[in-house]
Amino acid sequence: MRNLTSRVRARHTPRLLALASALASALVAALGLAGCGDRRQLPQELPAAAQALREFEGSYPSESSPVGTVRAFDITAEPTEIPFTNGRKLKVWAYNGQVPGPTLRIRLGETLRVHFTNRLPQETTIHWHGVRLPNAMDGVPHATQPPVQPGGTFVYELTPKDAGTFWFHPHVRSSEQVERGLYGVLIVEDKEPPPYTKDVVWLIDDWLLDESGQIRPEFNTRHDLAHDGRWGNLITVNGKTDEVLRVRPGERIRLRLLNTSNGRVVLPDFPGLDARLIASDGMYLSEPKSAAGHELAPGNRMDVDLSFPQSLSEPIRVFDRFYARRANHLADIVVEGDPIDTPAFASPARAHVPVWASALDVPEHHAFKLNARSGGPFGLEWTIDERAFAGHSAGHHAALTLERGRFYRLRFINESARLHPIHLHGMFFRLLARNGGPVFEPFFRDTVLVHGRETIDIGVVPSDVGSWMMHCHILEHAEAGMMTMIDVTEGAAAPHAH
Ligand code: C2O
Ligand code: CU
Q1: Which tens digits make up the pLDDT trace of 361-409?
Q2: What percent of the chain shows pLDDT beyond 70?
Q3: How far apart are CA 411 and CA 432, in angstroms?
Q4: Nearest to residue 478, comparing CAs of 439, 435, 425?
């Protein structure tokens, strides 16, 4: 398996490797060999960037390793009615007639092939959130594919590079299409899945229903735009307000939580349980840590390792405590039945995650300014660097061009008082600082919540060439302009196939 920066094979001792690498970069710097032709000095030639890149090595593979098995699924998007709370029917738009949509489970190395049919009254696409895939499969209308017209079809085919918890949703009018119920889960299992007694998905969504109990059909309202998007009046887990997970005493489960809300941030609290965070946005941590206080913004995923002591008999009521004074009940866990022995195995959270202690010394490559102004089709528009994305069909301007295989420090300055969960397609990044103060999170992300007036720094090594979106995952903010593109090109420093 080839890693992003592996110019030297990893079977040498780490010290030798570091030495060789340091010598190589010194040589490169001394001889000015860094690029072909005349180029300005890129941060990579600086010691802190070279160090960051060395630390990154081995974090995750640069290529997928297809095993040759194709897993085919049919997905149709279509308006329908589903049974909902209190015996009522809810009119939704659904994948395969169900909300949440299907959970697609494949194994790392397998190829996912989805025959997609659009039976909606609007055009649409499917975006595979968090999956490192070929750009042409990313589901961004006009940029990576033409939108799928009503009655049209499209075949998505991709071999994920990473095992983990991902999801999929439309990238056309997503503030409406996702709110109406279009989303599903993609689980890429490890080659050898750890022996949890259960592997459970909790998909958290929030709905804004009107007096008749149906989805309020006004989207991108002035109110939603001026606040943190569309926050609903009903929260569901797996489409239910009374989801109950039943386990036996002694079980050790993997619980995968996803937040598919348009705007709501949740902070799950498991009272009385030692919830261990093992993966964030699909990717394993370098070591498990307490899940307490982990914010799940729209788009985010968290996988937790939960063991149920033999002594537990009361049901566990799981709450969202993002706003401590307005806790929301999410779901319950009931421990019942004959006890079993808790399986003892090492946590799968043992990924290589760079510490990047001196990454803040790398000059920032770009600082994005996030703000709002009046104007645009909804009366208020959200901007990145004073630009509002004028809709997918308008032809785009890349805010930034990065080279594959290089380390970059990027900054986001939230000049507004609202929340912005910033999501990058096609790459993972690590949070480096909040308001200038170094932060070490032992995991990568694809979405990070930027709080009001906050400045954050991230470190990223793009792994895939293409035109990738970057946007706020509060879908109303995105629709009202808070989207842009990042172009990743094959740089001189990236490993070549020849
Ligand atoms: Cu889940 Cu472009 O987003
Ligand atoms: Cu936002």
Answers
A1: 999 999 999 999 999 999 999 999 999 998 887 777 889 999 999 999 9
A2: 90
A3: 10
A4: 425
- CA dist 182 and 95 (Å) reads 6
Ramachandran angles phi, psi of 443, nearest 5°: -160, 160
pTM of structure: 0.90
- 422 CA from centroid of ligand 1 (Å): 10
Ligand 1 first shell, C-beta below 6 A: 127, 129, 169, 171, 299, 423, 425, 469, 471, 473
Residue 471 three-state SS: strand
Distance of CA 497 to the CA centre of its chain: 29
Kindly tell me the burial class for residue 6, based on how many C-beta atoms sit within 10 Å of its own C-beta (0-12, 13-18, 19 or more).
middle
Paired tokens of 101: 């949509």
* Alpha-carbon distances, residue 362 vs 46, 50, 434, 448 (angstroms): 8, 9, 16, 20
Q: For the stretch 49-67, what's the b/e string if a residue is b when 16 or more beta carbons lie within 10 angstroms of its beta carbon?
A: bbbbbbbbbbbbbbbbeee
Per-residue model confidence as pLDDT tens digits over 113-137: 999 999 999 999 999 999 999 999 9
Directed axis angle between helix 14-31 and helix 47-56, to 10°? 140
Digit-coded pLDDT (tens) for 52-102:
999 999 999 999 999 999 999 999 999 999 999 878 999 999 999 999 999
Minimum-distance ligand to the CA of 474?
2
Residue 9 tokens read as 């094979």
Structure tokens, 408: 């970059």
What φ, ψ does residue 102 adopt, rounded to 5°?
-65, 150
**Secondary-structure percent of the chain, ordered helix, strand, coil, rounded to 5:** 10, 40, 50
Q: How far does the centroid of ligand 2 lie from the alpha carbon of residue 325, in Å? A: 23
Residue 460 CA neighbour count, 13 Å, CB half: 27
Neighbours of ion ligand 2 (CB under 5 A): 420, 472, 474, 477
